[in-house]
Fold this protein.
Amino acid sequence: MGLGRTTPFSPRGKRAATAGGADVRLKGKVAVISGAAQGLQGELMGIGGATAWLFVREGAKVVLGDIDEDSGQKTAAQIRERGGEALFARLDVTQED
C-alpha cells in the first residue's frame, strides 16, 4: 500500500489497472461467497451469484457456497466455461457443524 499504488478506496478515487487498462482489483485473491448458487447468466440472479460474477471479472477465483447443489454446480460450471475459476461447495449456514 505504501508503494504509491492507489486502492479502490483511495481518497483520489483512482483504481489500480492492468497493463491492458482493465480494472483487476482482486487478481490473485480467492473469495468464498455464501448464497451464490443463483448466478446463472441469462436468469434472475441473487446477490451472491451476482457478487461471484463481479469478483471473477475483477480477477478473483471464487468458491460458491450454498444449499442448492444443482444450481451451485451449474453456476460454477458456467463461470469456468467463460474463463473464470470457480468451484462449488455445499454450505448450510444454519448448521453449526
Notes: The chain has a mean pLDDT of 83. Strands lie at 30-34, 61-66, 86-90.
